Q: What sequence folds into this?
């Protein structure tokens, strides 16, 4: 049996590795170009405000719904386990902790990668295939400054705010569900929530959401700027913007969790002994 | 002797594994109108985008008004680019902006703050291309293709360029609108002395507005070392060319004597009847 060059697994692996590094390199080059443009100056108000509105205000309903359901699902899932250990009164702690440090930032970013990231990639991709990006250059403007920088600023500034909204709504919906449906004492819910969740957890969640915002903006704009020809190219750019943003969010979440936990225990070493002793 | 307005030397463009342009050298003198023709896929639009530096060639040099573009700083290059205007094939109007904002875009990007002056220029340019001020609040999707082309031209002219690039200006338009665009190209040259570079398949446009014709031939149909420019000369020379490839493209009905007067040519047949 003959094996063609294209089917050779070594070739496929090599091509896959090459494509990965080319794609990653392209992303780094694009980000550098964006940062250089950002250094030259901030976008004008009439350019920035509509983008802030589109990314921020119009994402609020999606974030509210996501946050509300996460909070209630967490209450349902943890209640049975905690009840077996007679710890159901501590539901507030686990819901708040999980939302603030992990699920809130990741799920809000995932929803926004779908809503905002895909839309940005499709919009910029359409502008590219209809030569509007070239038209910006032809009129003496820098397309990266005009199109990418405002979107980057909007994502970095607003995704943490949207995450904070998702966290707050999730905690509130978890509280309402625990109180009215599961019969948890609301005073205990809030008492344990405040006792277990520290300022560091809130800050760690917000740091994550800032970096998730960066990655959504960079990945989506890069995909839009380099999309293939025609409707197929735009469609592929929108899909890839979501898929690559999602992978970036999950990968960064893992790395950031490790880095932030290590930093936390370096700053407060006594927390390690408390954790091992099961006090905390 | 004045330097050519635009000059490309030994330009090669390779996209992936495909060589689109190979060793193309061309210059356009100030004030003349050059038509670049050739069959689809021969690299006409790529040549024009390289001339405007919307695409970077793989190798070769580009000069604007005698200066190598690569030697210019980013700011200087942006400044020089404002001396060049570009009418895109599909007009490339910004669909999220109104007609007014589209035409005003270039002026705002160059730092013009005086809204009164911007408004006056927008209305003047729209008037110049024969459009009524009533359309300023419309979005590009609300006007016809011919009107979009004219708005595209008004937008390109808003910065008073010295050189205008027209990428297939009449493609997809009916004969009436095609003639209107040809008239505009002609009148822009007459009234402003603008240098013109036109990529087109429409031989009527070539006959009516061009001083010189450059014909490109697809790379894949040529020998390895053959030049892609198979013809460079006047309309008369084009009609008299003995090159079989040139004749195959222009046909037998090429008329070099079409009147260029905007008013007269409406009443003349554009091509000899067959």
A:
């Amino acid at each position: 049996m003959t094996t063609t060059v294209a089917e050779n697994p070594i070739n496929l692996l090599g091509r896959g590795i090459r494509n990965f590094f080319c794609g990653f390199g392209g992303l780094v080059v694009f980000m550098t170009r964006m940062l250089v443009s950002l250094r030259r100056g901030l976008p004008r108000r009439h350019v920035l405000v509509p983008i802030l509105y589109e990314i921020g205000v119009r994402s609020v309903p999606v974030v509210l719904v996501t946050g509300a359901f996460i909070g209630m699902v967490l209450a349902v899932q943890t209640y049975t386990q905690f009840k077996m250990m007679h710890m159901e009164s501590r539901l507030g702690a686990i819901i708040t902790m999980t939302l603030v440090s992990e699920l809130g930032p990741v799920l809000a970013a995932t929803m926004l990668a779908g809503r905002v990231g895909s839309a940005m990639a499709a919009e910029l991709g359409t502008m590219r295939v209809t030569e509007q990006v070239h038209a910006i250059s032809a009129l003496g403007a820098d397309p990266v400054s005009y199109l990418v920088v405002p979107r980057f600023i909007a994502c970095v500034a607003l995704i943490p705010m949207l995450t904070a909204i998702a966290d707050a709504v999730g905690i509130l919906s978890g509280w309402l569900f625990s109180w009215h449906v599961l019969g948890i004492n609301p005073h205990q819910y809030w008492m344990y929530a405040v006792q277990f969740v520290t300022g560091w957890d809130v800050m760690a969640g917000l740091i994550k959401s800032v970096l998730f915002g960066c990655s959504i903006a960079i990945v989506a704009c890069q995909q839009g700027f380099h999309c293939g020809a025609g409707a197929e190219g735009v469609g592929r750019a929108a899909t890839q913007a979501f898929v690559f943003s999602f992978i970036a969010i999950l990968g960064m979440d893992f790395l950031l969790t490790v880095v932030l936990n290590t930093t936390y225990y370096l700053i407060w070493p006594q927390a390690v002994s408390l954790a091992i002793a099961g006090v905390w | 002797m004045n330097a050519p307005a635009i000059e490309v030397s030994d330009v090669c463009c390779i996209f992936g594994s495909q060589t689109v342009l190979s060793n193309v050298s061309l210059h356009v003198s100030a004030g003349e109108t050059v038509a670049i023709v050739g069959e689809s896929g021969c690299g006409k639009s790529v040549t024009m985008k390289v001339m405007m530096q919307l695409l970077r060639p793989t190798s070769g040099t580009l000069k604007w008004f005698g200066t190598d573009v690569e030697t210019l700083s980013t700011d200087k290059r942006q400044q020089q680019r404002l001396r060049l205007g570009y009418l895109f094939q599909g007009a490339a109007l910004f669909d999220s902006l109104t007609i007014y904002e589209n035409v005003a875009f270039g002026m705002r990007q160059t730092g013009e703050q005086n809204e009164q002056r911007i408004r006056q220029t927008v209305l003047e340019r729209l008037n110049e291309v024969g459009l009524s001020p009533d359309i300023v609040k419309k979005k590009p999707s609300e006007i016809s293709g011919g009107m979009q082309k004219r708005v595209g031209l008004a937008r390109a002219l808003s910065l008073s360029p010295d050189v205008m690039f027209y990428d297939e200006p009449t493609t997809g338009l009916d004969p009436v609108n095609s003639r209107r665009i040809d008239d505009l190209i002609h009148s822009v040259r007459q009234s402003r002395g603008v240098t013109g570079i036109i990529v087109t398949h429409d031989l009527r446009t070539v006959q009516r507005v061009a001083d010189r014709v450059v014909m490109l031939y697809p790379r894949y149909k040529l020998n390895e070392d053959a030049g892609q420019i198979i013809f460079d000369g006047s309309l008369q020379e084009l009609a008299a060319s003995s090159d079989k490839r040139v004749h195959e493209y222009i046909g037998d009905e090429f008329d070099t004597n079409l009147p260029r007067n905007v008013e007269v040519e409406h009443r003349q047949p554009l091509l000899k009847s067959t």
